[in-house]
Amino acid sequence: MTNILLVGAGGFIGSILRYWISGYVQQAANRMDFPFGTLAVNVVGCFAIGLLAQVGEKYGAFSNESRAFLVIGVLGGFTTFSSFSNDTVNLARQDYMMNAVANVGANVILGLFAVWLGRTVGHLIWR
After folding, report:
1. For the chain, what is the HEC assignment?
2. Contacts 24+ apart (CB under 8 A), 55-58
3. Would you tell me the crossing angle of helices 36-59 and 97-125 to the nearest 10 degrees?
4. Which residue numbers in the chain have pLDDT < 70?
5. Per-residue pLDDT at 60
6. Cβ proximity of 99 and 90 under 8 Å
7. Residue 41 in contact with residue 111, Cβ under 8 Å?
8. Which of 6, 28, 60, 105 could bridge to 68 as Cys pair (CB 3.0-4.6 Å)?
9. What pLDDT shows up at residue 16?
10. Cα–Cα distances in Å, from 53 out to 19, 75, 111?
11. What is the pLDDT of residue 48?
């Protein structure tokens, strides 16, 4: 029961962070024909999970409870695969097919790179 509450609390925090950050980035981009806000939170979330995974694997730094809160809760609430998918379909439906394809490519490539970068930074900091 404790882990469920930790996941819920983390999800609450992650969702609020996603709302603030994605909204800010989208507004700063000043364009509505590409979901820059969703892309930003997905890349940041991928970096964070890569960093936490590296630290956790190297040092066993996370208990089951802290993993439930941080990885499943906060990052699960923060990253937005369903929003990414919906944004992509909406771009295609609005005849922004090249932007839809670019969105898929950017999320996948930058997401993979961000996980790798997070792990690399984690390794360099906590050797």
Report:
1. CHHHHHHHHHHHHHHHHHHHHHHHHHHHHCCCCCCHHHHHHHHHHHHHHHHHHHHHHHHCCCCHHHHHHHHHHHHHHHCCHHHHHHHHHHHHHCCCHHHHHHHHHHHHHHHHHHHHHHHHHHHHHCC
2. 55/122, 55/126, 58/122, 58/123, 58/126
3. 30
4. none
5. 83
6. no
7. no
8. 6
9. 98
10. 24, 12, 15
11. 94
Nearest to residue 106, comparing CAs of 36, 47, 50, 24?
36
- Report CA Rg, the chain: 16
Q: Which residue has the tokens 């906590």?
A: 126
Please give the structure tokens belonging to residue 39: 């892309």
Taking alpha carbons only, the member of 64, 89, 84 closest to residue 4 is 64
Shortest CA distance to 19 belongs to which of 98, 104, 80? 80
**Quick one: CA dihedral 11, 3, 107, 44, positive or negative?**
positive
Tokens of 67: 């993993």
